[in-house]
């Protein structure tokens, strides 16, 4: 109860309530908020600090910029969302803030789209080499059914989210979806796409797939869609993905089957020319995951493979992973200490 009272006290001021409303629309920096509210930066920073301390906002750094957004966990999350719903949209100040927010995000969208346009040709070239994205997405939807019910996930992590396409696809099926990417330009495009689609349950962060800025066991579902071929150390990426999975959670890796298109290495920075099923299965096992049924979607000339895997439930019999046995790196492998019971595999895997 004390946490709820503290959150209510922190929100009970007009600028702070406006900040909550603005941040319910998207992730913004202090600079953005200063511009929209027309108040001094120290003042806005002070309000933001109070809202963060009360658990109503989350704060995270991306390079030299700090972003704020509504909290996505704890009692503050619920209080923030309910308060936002209570404020009438026709209030004059709220309308003014909304207009300024729209102008600011339109400028940001233009910058993001300029980046996207510069790279669109090479992305289109790669897309033309394999099956239609819609076919891949249909196959993925079978593996991540909407909740509630068997096989549904509460939260989803999309590693190497790029433009946030996977977040857009799965946001309606989960309570919370988070995208991680190393590239700030890609994250800017993703933010614009998520704001435009009004997907308030999605957020993106800058982070490295080798060292995710997330606690262990924090997601029901993790995706690696067309990202693994950029990895110098794919096994380490899978181990790190496994680390953030809850027991019983699933990882879905989507990438190319082995191919010989050297052009992708030379011109598109691919480190790996696809992956064999056995190779992926071995890495999944080392990461403490149980491999599911692989699907291949043949295209011309590239075949897209979908490798689902799941982390055994916590109450399964413990077992010794190869990585632990070898005394090797630990975080992910050490977390994966359960045996597999085929009956516990979620539907679709
Ligand atoms: C081909 S894009 C795929 C984007 C998205 N998954 C999709 O399918 O639409 C690959 C993405 O991986 C990201 N990436 C590459 N290396 C990364 C790393 N070490 N950590 C996080 N993201 C990375 C790139 O910035 C890029 O956005």
Verbal overview:
The protein has 349 residues and is α/β, with parallel strands linked by helices. It folds into two domains: 2-100, Winged helix-like DNA-binding domain superfamily/Winged helix DNA-binding domain (Arc Repressor Mutant, subunit A, Orthogonal Bundle), CATH 1.10.10.10; 129-344, 3-Layer(aba) Sandwich (Rossmann fold), CATH 3.40.50.150. 45% of the residues lie in helices and 17% in strands. It is built from 14 helices and eleven strands. It has helices at residues 2-11, 14-25, 30-37, 41-53, 74-86, 92-127, 133-143, 165-170, 184-196, 234-243, 262-268, 277-286, 322-325, 331-335; strands at residues 28-29, 57-62, 65-70, 155-159, 176-181, 202-206, 219-225, 245-256, 290-291, 295-297, 304-310. The strands form two sheets. Strands 4, 5, 6, 7, 8, 9, 10 and 11 form an eight-stranded mixed beta sheet that branches. Helix 3 packs across helix 4. The protein is globular and about 60 Å long. The chain binds S-adenosylmethionine. Residues 160-163, 165-166, 180-183, 186, 208-209, 225-227, 230 line the site of S-adenosylmethionine.
Uncertain segments are 317-349
Which CATH top level class of the largest domain fits?
Answer: Alpha Beta
Note the total helix count: 14
| Count of all domains | 2
| CATH superfamily descriptor of the largest domain | Vaccinia Virus protein VP39
- Secondary structure: helix percent: 40-55%
User: In the CATH hierarchy, what is the architecture of the largest domain at level 2?
Assistant: 3-Layer(aba) Sandwich
Global morphology: globular
SSE ordering: HHEHHEEHHHEHEHEEHEHHEEEHH
Q: By helix and strand content, what is the structural category?
A: alpha/beta
Bound molecules: S-adenosylmethionine
CATH topology-level name of the largest domain: Rossmann fold
Total strands: the figure is 11
Q: Distance N terminus to C terminus? A: 41 Å
Q: What is the CA-atom radius of gyration, in angstroms? A: 22 Å
Biggest sheet layout: 8 strands, mixed
Mean pLDDT: 86
Strand content: 15-25%
């Amino acid at each position: 109860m004390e946490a709820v009272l503290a959150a209510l006290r922190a929100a009970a001021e007009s600028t702070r309530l406006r900040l909550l409303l603005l941040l319910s629309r998207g992730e913004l920096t202090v600079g953005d908020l200063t511009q929209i509210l027309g108040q001094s930066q120290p003042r806005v920073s002070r309000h933001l600090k109070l809202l963060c301390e009360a658990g109503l906002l989350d704060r995270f750094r991306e390079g030299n910029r700090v972003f704020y957004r509504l909290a996505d966990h704890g009692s503050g999350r619920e209080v923030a969302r309910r308060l936002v719903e209570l404020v009438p949209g026709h209030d004059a100040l709220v309308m003014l803030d909304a207009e300024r927010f729209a102008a600011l995000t339109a400028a940001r969208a233009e910058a993001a789209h300029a980046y996207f346009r510069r790279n669109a040709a090479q992305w289109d070239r790669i897309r033309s080499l394999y099956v239609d994205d819609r076919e891949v997405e249909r196959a993925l939807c079978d593996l991540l059914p909407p909740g509630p019910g068997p096989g549904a996930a509460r939260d989803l992590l999309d590693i190497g989210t790029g433009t946030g396409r996977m977040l857009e696809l799965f946001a309606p099926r989960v309570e919370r979806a988070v995208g991680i990417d190393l590239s700030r330009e890609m994250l800017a495009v993703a933010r614009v796409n998520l704001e435009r689609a009004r997907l308030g349950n999605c957020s993106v962060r800058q982070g490295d797939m080798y060292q995710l800025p997330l606690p262990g066991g924090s997601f029901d579902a993790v995706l690696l869609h067309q990202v693994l071929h950029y990895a110098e150390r794919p096994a380490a990426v899978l181990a790190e993905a496994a680390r953030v999975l809850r027991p019983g959670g699933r990882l879905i890796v989507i990438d190319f089957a082995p191919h010989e298109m050297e052009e992708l290495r030379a011109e598109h920075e691919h480190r790996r020319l696809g992956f064999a099923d056995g190779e992926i299965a071995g890495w999944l096992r080392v990461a403490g995951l149980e491999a599911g049924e692989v699907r291949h979607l043949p295209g011309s000339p590239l075949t897209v493979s979908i490798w689902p895997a799941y982390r055994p439930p916590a109450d399964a019999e413990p077992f010794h992973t190869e990585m632990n046995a070898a005394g090797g790196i630990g975080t992910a492998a050490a977390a994966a200490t359960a045996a597999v019971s085929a009956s516990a595999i979620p539907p679709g895997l």
